[in-house]
Amino acid sequence: MGIFNTENLEIFSLALFFISFFGIITSKNMIKSIIFVMLIQTAVIMFWLKLGREDTATPIPPIIYDPALLDYMERIADPLPQALTLTAIIIGFSVVAVIITMFNALYRLHGTADWKKLEEVEGD
Amino acid sequence: MTQGLLVLWIVSSLAIVFETRTYRLIIYFSIFSLITSVAYFLLGSPDVAMAEAAIAAFASIFFIICIEKYYSRKENVEKDSAKGESLARKAVKAVPALVLCVGLFFLVIYFIPGIEPSHYLKHLYLQRFMTDVGGENAVTAIYLGYRVYDTLFEALILVIAVVAVTHMSYSEKTQVADGSHSEIETSRVAALSLRIICPIIVAFGAYLIINGHISAGGGFQGGLALATFFICRYMVYDIYDISVKNVLQWEEFIFAIIIVVTAIAVFLGAATYMPAAIVPIYQSVYLIIMNLLIGLKVACAFFVLFYRYITIERE
Amino acid sequence: MGIENIWQLIGNIIIGFGVFCMIFGAVSLFVLKDFYPRILVASKIDTVGLLSFVIGFAFRHGLSFFTGKLFIILIIMLVLNPFVAHILARSAYRSGHELAAEAEEGEKS
Amino acid sequence: MLTFLVIVPVLLAVLLFIFSTNITAKIISIVFQSALFVASIYLVMITRDAEVITIVGSYDDILGIILRANSLSAIFVMLTTFIFLAVSVYSYSYKDRRDARTFWFLMFVLEASFIGLFLSGDLFNVFVLIEVSTLVTVILAMYDRKKRNIFHGKVFLLANVVSIQFYLLGLGYVYRITGAMDMERVTYALAGMDAGNLLLPYALLMTAIAFKNTLIPFFSWTPKTNIYRKSPTVVAAVLSGLQAKTSLYLFIRFQEIFEPIAAHDLFLAIGIFTGIFGAVMAICQSHIKMILAYHTISQIGLITVGISLGNEYAYIGGLYHIFSHAMFKTTLFLSSGIIIHSYGTSNVNEIRGVFKRMPIVGAATAAAVLGIVGAPFFIGSVSKYFISSDVGPLILAVTIALSLGTIISFMKFSSMFFGQSELRGDSPKAEVCKSIPVIVMGVVCLAGGIMGTQFIYFFFRYSVGIQIWSYAQKSIIFIVCALVGYLIYKYVVKGNALLSRLGAVSFGFKSVCASMGIFLAALLLW
Fold it and tell me: What is the ipTM of this complex?
């Protein structure tokens, strides 16, 4: 399936990882930083889900409604990374919710979302 | 189609890098998340895809609530400090970071371990989960069975986040009184269509929760759907008649019940004391109860979060 | 030409109509400059384009469990799409966004 | 039954949050902390003979999560419960805390996450618990509504979230090449592998762990220290005393897991650098809590040196120094809370005459200070003795330089014991509840020095002897150091404008993240 095979998927998620890392390093605005933090989480999760593929075909979801499915074991997606990434998604969102609240409070205090200005105000 | 999808994925993330206006930033972010969740689905993980889609929707809502108050539509994100700088100077400034990231990218690719991945654990899980935990969904079996210890802490972190948000956004003089209406009159069309949609949403959430152990979905995804119901309710009636403190206490109470249930069912191993005949029934009852509790807890949590952000907006 | 092929043909024609609507809608999104006409076009894409897609797929597939699911989606879309367009237009109006023609008239007078 | 050691505090926290009032919350927390302390002593007793293993649920051990308690982690659990007990006794008399329920909820959750981290045998579980403890840490540090520092809290949280993504990525590679999550299985699977394949997961994981350790070259720790200044005393004590210990414990564990390619030399160099830099920054401060916070960083550098040296004595010394550092640092933070409360200021240059005003608390504080600078017969001297007992001249010079830096920074601190103060705070006498834990821990600081070998045998089952002659040698070196330090303090440091400007140096979120990337590159290219 061309680009959507196992190796390329890994490289894509690594590329996204470092694109968002670049964004985190360079972005001047807080909201942008928060969005990049969410993006970097997505990159890692994509990487994890990619681990579940054994061959290059589109995997079957790990829902075994028919025991005969177990004969095609290598076509079923790995359930463990899925369960783990479910946990990771929720944890990531909880932290982001707290960060958004902090952003709110900061913005009300200083009226700016700019990193440089905030560091000048708060960096004593 | 799938080839184009990943390219679009990277392109939308690059669009976020180069975008400077906040509203568009959030729209690009939603597009990005949509593509992501389709890609997750194509990777054979409908549970994660559902969770990602719901989470992204909530995140965009929260972002928009946050910035709506503070930014006018035409304002630039980087107006503050980068004013008057030419594009070339900006580009020169970004060069060290670019070198670092590109260098790291190629370094990491160079060092990718060349070992054949081991799939031993996957096969073991798929063969064993039906007898060990029960249900038909292997993800739910791991999530609520084998690794329920992680799930407890994950539920805990949501509780902590909610407590933190209520604690931090609290200020005495700007509290919105319970039961107050806003001045803006709600639209009749909106109220009518939401009244049609709401039962469908609730039914969908209940379906996801109750069928979580035999099909895709589960407590978390269903709980998010239920939380959407609360948001619809807010949009229809626009009342603050639910006390956030009470909902917070309910959430904690449900979390306590979750701990007790897992302690009895998993940590003490209740199934080992039972006759073998009733174990399958007990297992599916356990899975349904856990999904139900987690769903209710998540719905409460997201309701509190949403309400908190809305009241901040109203101040 | 069997009866199934006719159903397939009808389904394809309806889907083709949906594609037509979507492409023209997308083009006119760029052609139209004002906000309110854009909402109109966007809701057209959503409602007509998507609905004809769904109906076309239902025809292609014949009567089955799958079609039932498609019809539920269809009903939800029928309610939600106009609702979304309505909310967008209403909130734009409430927050003071004026029609382009009216704004020009206001400047003249 | 290790699971319940982690779960019961969480359950109690939730129940306290729902049902209790402020006063019952305090009483219940003290009672429960005592019970937990007793339980952890029992755990130490039984792990002296054999490792305790609990599989969560009645599943096969490869499928479920495994909790392990060996003698090392049992010691850490005991340390955690002891410090939390001290802290809950200490804060019994707080009156200004309106919302004690939320506070104790968070404290219990923090304790549970620490205990869970020490007991956890599963790599993904470590990730979850790190996230819990980070989030709780940030919220607790900003607990007081009036004087919280949201900006630094936010920087701290964001940087931690970014660093934890490196951890997850590395964990993905570990899962891919070993097919397991359990630490022992991973260790076993990695042992026979080619070093080139392990480098990437090792580098990614260690980037996150080193960040948690405040070890990353340059300035990742500044946000953390900025948090300390405005956070409640109790929270600062727990964070400095224990938060650093969890990451050090993880550091030790991960170096063990990746033993085939562990970069001891690199971490040795980083440890030396961190130690010296932390000491220099501590000299530059004048806020009590800031001195203590920067000092924590320099001590972490010293411990890293001890652990990474690769000889057995230094390793034991490093472990013992973790214990002793938790003791005296908690004591110092708590007593500085008492002192700040009593004098109404936190500037060291204004506080004078602590001995006269609060003789007992002053004595306990003095014991902790003597422990921290490594005076003979106090707890710090024993661990420093072991770290520098069997090393080359370079490391010896570094340890001497480190203790010199410590002495100089604490000259400023200890000048507040003597003299006459013009300040009259609102409550001249220390409260009983606050002084009890300080006094007890001060006594432990003295006892840990005098009976150092017995303590080490009890904790690590490792019998070492202190040679009187070389110990005396070290004592002489210490005295010389103290004199030199006093002279340097008097003629160089005091009132030096350059140093105080250096002390205000702080680095933002973006440079912290960039340093993470540089660290990753350095580990990969090492």
Answer: 0.89
